Amino acid sequence: MSDTTRHIRDEVIGIPRYNSGLTLEEVRERYNPPVISKLGSNESPFGASASAFDFQNRAAELVRLYPDPRGHELCAAIAGKLDVDTDQVILGNGSEDLIAIICRAVVRPDDIVTTLYPSFPLHEDYAVLMGGRVERIEVRADLTIDVPALIEAAKRRPRMILFANPMNPVGSWIGSDDFAAFLRAVDKDTLLVIDEAYAEYAAGDDYPSTIDLLKDCDRSWVVLRTFSKAYGLAGLRIGFGVTSSPQLCDFFNRVRTPFNTNAFAQYAAMAALGDEAHLRRTIELALTERARIADGLKQLGMRPAPSKGNFVFFDCGGNAALLAEELLKEGVIVKPWKQPGYETFIRVSIGSVDENDHFLRAMKHSLDRLSAAR
């Protein structure tokens, strides 16, 4: 077979495959456990609002016709909820689609893109694919964000600053005062992109509403959100971005594919956005169970990071991939982290009460087996 690498850009060859996590079918095929708890991809155990699937009278039409290319109705609903102009809102096939769109629109060869580390890998990958160079600001030893280092990086005027708040995978976050100090350091020539995929879970006065903090800012910015997590629509792939101006949003709309969000996703997101009671129940469960999982991990000798996401990132003190494989034998899917320097860490999603009980039991059994094998 001929070598096809000659046809591929160097940036593509150098990008590692994205770790999407295992499916239920893959785990059944490998170990066939009686029960599987899927806690590797930060999906909501409650799923979506029941109203999101009330398609009966419109299904044929939604399938037959192209979707609204701009998703005007959904954009207007989002704008009303967040008190921004409708023309500041852009939809994506999940918020990761918007990360790719922004990088294609903004990043040039050798541009610096600053991000937090460990990172959501696509924050780095899409920048590198456009020829950009990634500058990582690593978390401190206690796994909190190194805000002074981030401020110093901002002063160097990178082309773009892109990071998640709360962080993925760590769960750490930047509070209001720190964010204000950071924002003062951001140059007007730098595009600021804040990925708030987990903002709904970030309860507390110490977590700022980034959109509110940026509304009167004279910088160019984008805040990304998603319906995949708290709203439970991961399988339909729909997210959105709020931009600092309609002009910036228009440029991004020129880069995206014309019909990048499907009609079912737009319909379901509209319904999910309107069911605030379901969202509250989802968040309340996640916050209660997040604290319980963190406590349970500490009792097992693990070191969990502080988290405002629907997940906990913890140092297992050994080979995370090996522990994750032992957990699979018990029917529990987690995500061992593979970025350099964090190979002893695992990210576990917050599931239902039963799923979380399953995880804690499986952790004890797996640790006991690994200890006995040493």
TrEMBL record:
It comes from the Bacteria. InterPro entries: Aminotrans_II_pyridoxalP_BS, Aminotransferase_I/II_large, HisP_aminotrans, HistidinolP_aminotransfase, PyrdxlP-dep_Trfase, PyrdxlP-dep_Trfase_major, PyrdxlP-dep_Trfase_small. Keywords: Amino-acid biosynthesis, Aminotransferase, Histidine biosynthesis, Plasmid, Pyridoxal phosphate, Transferase. Residues 38-362 form the Aminotransferase class I/classII large domain. It comes from Rhizobium grahamii. Pathway: Amino-acid biosynthesis; L-histidine biosynthesis; L-histidine from 5-phospho-alpha-D-ribose 1-diphosphate: step 7/9. This is Histidinol-phosphate aminotransferase. Its EC number is 2.6.1.9. Homodimer.
